[in-house]
Amino acid sequence: MNWFWFAILALICWSGSDLFSKIGCRDSDDKTSHLKMVTAVGVVMGLHAAYVIFVGGVEISWDVIITYLPVSALYILSMTIGYMGLRYIELSISSPICNSSGALVAVMAITMSLITRDTAGISVPQIIATALVCIGVISLGFVEAREDEEARLVRQSVSNYKYSKSVLAILLPVIYCILDAAGTFADSLVLEKLNEDSANVAYELTFLACGIVCLVILLIKRSKFTVKREAPKYIGALFETVGQFAYIYALADEEHVAMSAPIISAYCLASVLWSRLFLKEKLSWKHYVSIAVAAVGIVVLGVLDEL
Fold it and tell me: Which of 78, 174, 195, 255 could form a disulfide with 179 if both were Cys (CB 3.0 to 4.6 A apart)?
């Protein structure tokens, strides 16, 4: 399998993870669905970590786990908040907002460069792409907040799930974006000291530990588990893990990263498509224009990041 198919696999798997995570977490009557989702991801990632340690021969130690712990914590917390947010808003809206973390990292990098007056690495296309993502996400928030409630109910009539206008609905994906961006920024610093494979295993083992903690909380709360509601969570967790695997191998081909990166970066577009086809989510034209602007910026950033 070459870089192209790994990139396509990453796009399909990560958008599939979005879809099944949404299905597993969207029921408003289950207030612990995000904890169950963390448990599912922890179990699958724990199994993968065991495989790469005992079969793949990847070395891991407590020092590596502790060194990478701040990064792991930011990523896991962001994902937990993201899963919680899926109860309050359409996947079509939350996915582009969550995937704007790359633009936020770019804003951090540009700000640091301006403060230190080291602007040699800043390009005009990078600034434009970052601005597009920010404009798209901000406008998406305004469209969502200002939409007439009657118009909202009409466009949601096809779906079995209705979402009321609320600050929390937009705030949770935004918090995810901020935490994920902070994790990515910290990742770039910590990986200067650690082997990437060992760091990834440390992340997966930390997620497993968090999954066990969540399971204990769920058992104490006597939360109900049903195959119908839990199956999508584990399918989503499997897609998430396979997508990470494909992502690593797609970018391992250094000669084609400029082509694989934008393909993978476009997975939020696939998430919007799946939400329209399988979840019957229907947005207004203003929503779609905002999403398109943000998506263009995300793809361009993906290209520039690997050039």
Answer: 78
Q: Helix, strand, coil shares of the chain as percentages rounded to 5? A: 80, 0, 20
* Rounded distance between C-alpha atoms, residue 170 and residue 57, angstroms: 43
- The overall pTM is greater than 0.90: no
Closest of 24, 26, 16 to residue 40, by C-alpha: 24
Per-residue pLDDT reduced to its tens digit, 132-170: 877 887 787 778 777 777 767 776 666 666 666 678 888
Determine how many CB atoms are found less than 10 A away from the CB of residue 111: 10
User: Is 138 exposed, middle or buried (CB count within 10 Å of its CB: 0-12, 13-18, 19+)?
Assistant: middle
List, for residues 283-304, the tens digit of each pLDDT value.
Answer: 888 888 888 888 888 777 767 6
Give CA 90 to chain center in angstroms. 15
Residue owning tokens 């705030």: 171
Residue whose tokens read 């870089």: 3
